[in-house]
Amino acid sequence: MVRALFAEVFGGAPASAARSPGRVNLIGEHTDYNGGLVLPAAIELATRVSVRPRADALVRGCSRERGEARAGLYDPPAGHWLDYARGTARVLADAGLVRDTGFEIAVLSDLPEGAGLSSSAALEAATALALIAASGVAEVAFDRPELARLCQRAEVEFAGVPCGIMDHYAVLCSEPGSALLLDCARVEARAVPLPDGLEILIFDTGIERALREGRYAARRAECERALEGARFALGRRLASLSELVPSDFERLERTLDAVALRRARHVVGENARVRALAAAFASGDLEAAGAAMFASHESLRVDYEVTVPESDALVEDARGLPGSVGARMTGAGFGGCTVHLVETGHAHAFATGLARRFRDRFGREPRHWFSRAAAGANLI
Ligand code: ADP
Ligand code: MG
Hints:
By secondary structure, the chain is of the alpha+beta class.
């Protein structure tokens, strides 16, 4: 389909095409920028792109979702969706992986934008694979973690989004049926297979992201403050809050302000819960898996203060439904989505029941999606 869109808009065939999944984080929230652990999984919703290099430096884009755009490869960022594709091309050219020419790109996606499912990383990852394949300078069997770093760089430096490595790693390095246990400080990951018979459900609270960005920045600043305070109180070199251990808290309770203390406590507890969920998946202990997810939500509600009534309700209401394994908010919070693990046979009744409860409480229909843990990005 993305090849047909390309032919319709630009005429002729593209040189290559690629798809990239979005991702959902199963656990490990606000730990990425605190040097901690995350456990995302790629999802079946995906972005597809097709590209064809040009002889000049013009970049022409057509997105089914966002419309047409054009700019020079070396023009400054324009605050437009095409920045993500141009930024990726520029970073790849700098790394010597593609020729620094313009290109045409067609995009289509079934990932909702701005819902926290990483439509931006998917666009960059698919663009990167397609451009590398089209340019022929490097093999596409290229080091995936390295490609994730380059795509992250494109998003930070060119699109101007101060994001971590998780999204790009998850969409490029995931294996089907598995989540990815990623250490954000070491930038090392391993696949953690999900137990059989589980469905991932994602519910959208429908709360706009525009209202969230200032508060995300505030959390980051509070963590910086907590880290400074902890270094001073403990007299230790600490690279991040994730280097704190539970026994440090006796002293921290006497020295950190109440807010900084709660943020630090969330980070340390959340890293332990990531390990607990990964271990529960490995042993097939669904009760322990659910306990880790619900405890994560509770910590995000009480200690990190990033949940909203809509996400609290989706998690609380999930508890009583047949087949429910675990639930929590996912992504930065202040709205966004919740993620649910549900036994496959119950998934549809679960979704109907949860949507009805949401409608009763908030008077509107919540968007939701089903997925299995999917494969990372590939050429198509
Ligand atoms: P997300 O949580 O979905 O990654 P972001 O704000 O990080 O949200 O990225 C969304 C941005 O990515 C959009 O504003 C747009 O610029 C770009 N984008 C994502 N999907 C598409 C698409 N299908 N076509 C064009 N641009 C897209
Ligand atoms: Mg994004």
